[in-house]
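User: I'm designing a mutation panel for Phosphogluconate dehydratase and want to avoid disrupting the core. Could you give me a predicted structure to guide residue selection? Please restate the sequence first so the numbering is unambiguous.

Assistant: Good idea. Sequence first, for numbering, then the predicted structure tokens:
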Amino acid sequence: MTADSRIEAITKRIVERSKPTREAYLDRTRRAISKGVHRSTLSCGNLAHGFAVCSPRDKEALAGDVVPNLGIITAYNDMLSAHQPFETYPALIRQAASEVGGVAQVAGGVPAMCDGVTQGQPGMELSLFSRDAIAMSAAIGLSHNMFDAAVYLGVCDKIVPGLMIAALTFGHLPSVFIPAGPMTTGLPNDEKSRIRQLYAEGKVGRAELLEAESKSYHGPGTCTFYGTANSNQMLMEIMGFHLPGASFINPGTPLRDALTKEATKRALAITALGNEFTPAGEMIDERSIVNGVVGLHATGGSTNHTIHLIAMARAGGIQLTWQDISELSDIVPLLARVYPNGLADVNHFHAAGGMGFLIKQLLKAGYVHDDVRTVYGQGLAAYTIDPKLADDGTVHREPAADVSADPKVLTTIDKPFQANGGLKMLTGNIGKAVIKISAVKPERHVIEAPAIVFNDQQELQDAFKAGKLERDFVAVVRFQGPKANGMPELHRLTPPLGVLQDRGFKVALVTDGRMSGASGKIPAAIHLTPEAVDGGAIARIKDGDMVRLDAIAGTLEVLVDAADFDARPLATTNLDDNEFGMGRELFASFRRIAGPADQGASVLF
């Protein structure tokens, strides 16, 4: 139980709201558990296909039901720095499985695209939908019904949410997530941001920009800023899908390999063939989801998870809302300063005490539930540790410190960086949106200025380059929602808007699109729903309309007479250019059926 009655009340509200769907989900999961994984009931042809390339020892083991078989779902590719380390994981996992008498097979691969490569490019319009495609791809891999448990190898933005949706869809199986860790520290993130702004102003060239970017993203592992990828890792640990301390150990280190081996053996230990059966669908419950949201707020995590967490929860029959997320943000203080909320990167966060220190502080204040199930077999208190490499090459865990090793990066519950998590829901006469203010200066939490309307992000870029934005304004960027064009991230808008803000102008963004986990100092009302192509009032806004964004009161209003505003026709735009190229034509059906942002922007639920 938590000690904070407000957290408990929100959790109970989610439980009550979720009862019909959660009970139906658990009934399906338990029926699947009762059927079991009986490889011996497969026809001889089925089974022969399933272990055709296995060693004689593994074939003999898989012919019966007494040896656990571990399915590996991998997002490996060697174009993504965060996923390149997974190339060697299957061999390591097979070896670890063999050491405890088990078998491991790569059940399937899932696509893994990099938002960093596709920012501002046509391919970005597939990014959000890749989450649901990943879930479906993982389902195909696990549909062979050869496995007693699964391990998921994934790190980045849509990959982990997609894999978690798959893990809960196959909730009768135990599931362990195995990360690869962050790349080592390169060029400081604030320096990278400075060069980007100079480039936007034309003060440095492409060569200088590429040099800065290459020094930032320079090796294997996740990007080191606290965007969606690293928010994913935090979530998997605080929700109990990682082993304690697994999230932020660098790739290619002995401790990283030791954690991977340990995770493999733990996955085999929690199958139905043992005494610690931990099916993912029963392990993750409303308390786990609340713990994830609390962790997101305490660390100033990615805005993308106001979409992903809702979809992930729905996969387990749990009905999470933006209202829940916003109210939890009002309760939970910010305990971490990691770029863009500060100057540090995730390596500095880990060195300051990392996840073990953070969870210890949250437990101390009663902000998270300890009485949850985890893959480790104990409650959340078992995660208040600092992982080390033991002399024998295994993982040794020491108690997390009570004092931060760097109070400027990670602080205690009684000295928070700010009183709330900084992720809030905004409501008003143009719909619902979310805003992240943990990196926005307090004097910019309320912006009232005339609207300048753009129907795509390139229009804003062109207006900036032409010197047409040298004034106070609210940029309204519409036709960027799931149904319009797949809801791409609009992170390329950050440098020009940042330049204008630094010149002293009052600037804000209102959009039915997304901003990445790297969004920072610009007040941005994002994920606006209903979106423009779905009849949203954002399609009624005109140039010059006064817009008031108030992150303190939680409101977003167009200051126009209500009758006049409602009588305006909805603007339209030509989206033909978004229908083809870079595979976009293959996702036309996704765009047609995509749900709204506040319901997870999913084609699955």
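For picking mutation sites, this is relevant: The chain has 22 helices and 14 strands. The first strand starts at residue 69 and ends at 74.
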